[in-house]
C-alpha cells in the first residue's frame, strides 16, 4: 500500500489524532469545516484543484 497524496479532514478539526500518522508524513492536508455527511462532490473537486495548485518540493 502506498502513501496517500491528499488527506481531507472534515468538521473543522485541525488535528490528525494519530490517524495514518506515519503513512501521511509526506501527504498534503486539506481541511474543511463541512461535516462528513455534508461533504459532497463539489467540495471534493475543490480539494483536488487546491491540491493540484500546490508547489511540491521533493
From TrEMBL:
InterPro entries of this UniProt entry?
A: UPP_synth-like, UPP_synth-like_CS, UPP_synth-like_sf
Question: Coiled-coil intervals in this record?
Answer: none
Q: What is this protein called?
A: Isoprenyl transferase
One GO term in the molecular function aspect is:
ditrans,polycis-polyprenyl diphosphate synthase [(2E,6E)-farnesyl diphosphate specific] activity
**What keywords are assigned to this protein?**
Transferase
Q: Which GO terms describe its biological process?
A: polyprenol biosynthetic process
- Write down the PANTHER family for this protein, in alphabetical order: DEHYDRODOLICHYL DIPHOSPHATE SYNTHASE 2, DEHYDRODOLICHYL DIPHOSPHATE SYNTHASE FAMILY MEMBER
UniProt organism field: Paenibacillus albus
Give cofactor(s), names only.
Answer: Mg(2+)
Amino acid at each position: 500500500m502506498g502513501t496517500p497524496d491528499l488527506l481531507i479532514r472534515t468538521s473543522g478539526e485541525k488535528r490528525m489524532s494519530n490517524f495514518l500518522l506515519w503513512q501521511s508524513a509526506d501527504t498534503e492536508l486539506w481541511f474543511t469545516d463541512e461535516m462528513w455527511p455534508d461533504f459532497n462532490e463539489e467540495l471534493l473537486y475543490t480539494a483536488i484543484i487546491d491540491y493540484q495548485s500546490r508547489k511540491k518540493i521533493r
